[in-house]
């Protein structure tokens, strides 16, 4: 693998920089796009490397542009990495950060089974709470595509994790839709 460049702002500027205040939200988005904390950090770093040279043009609304870069970079990484991964029957056990995360882990594993575009739509719509229009703009697709991808993804999540479906079967618990 290649070397990672680290983009760091000088200490005083970092405190005032708009993206430094939203780092946690960007990491959360990247985490749900990749499924791994380390990959999420790499994804955010790669996105920031791509965004910094364009700062003059995007400084009015940088977070939307960074989200677009995150989603596209995650899809690109998924496409290039998927043939190198080895599928196994059983996932290795990992220590959970908190004992009460079983439903979050179930949802996370289900999200990882969605195609990258559907996963990006779910993450942007329900975890980042973007509107359909904002999600469409972030992904560079039409609002209709967001709606259809969202519908297909929620249907797939209902199949993958029936325990999380609401009693009327209309949505996956934790996700409105």
Model description:
The chain is mainly alpha-helical and 177 residues long. Helix content is 62%, strand content 0%. It contains ten helices and no strands. It has helices at 11-16, 18-21, 23-34, 37-51, 55-58, 62-81, 102-112, 116-127, 132-139, 143-160. α3 runs parallel beside α6. The model is unreliable at 96-100 and 169-173 (pLDDT under 50).
Question: What is the strand and helix layout of this fold?
Answer:
Blueprint: H1 11-16, H2 18-21, H3 23-34, H4 37-51, H5 55-58, H6 62-81, H7 102-112, H8 116-127, H9 132-139, H10 143-160
Spatial gap, N to C terminus: 39 Å
Q: Biggest sheet, open or closed, and with what strands and sense? A: none
What helical percentage do the residues reach?
A: 55-70%
Order of helices and strands: HHHHHHHHHH
Oligomer: single chain
Structural class: mainly alpha
- Name the beta content range: under 5%
Low-confidence stretches: 96-100, 169-173
Mean pLDDT: 77
The total count of helices amounts to 10
Question: How many β-strands, per DSSP?
Answer: 0
Shape: globular
Q: From the alpha-carbon coordinates, what is the Rg to the nearest angstrom?
A: 17 Å
Give a quick rundown of the structure.
62% of the residues lie in helices and 0% in strands. The chain contains 10 helices and no strands. It has helices at 11-16, 18-21, 23-34, 37-51, 55-58, 62-81, 102-112, 116-127, 132-139, 143-160.
Features:
mainly alpha, globular, about 180 residues
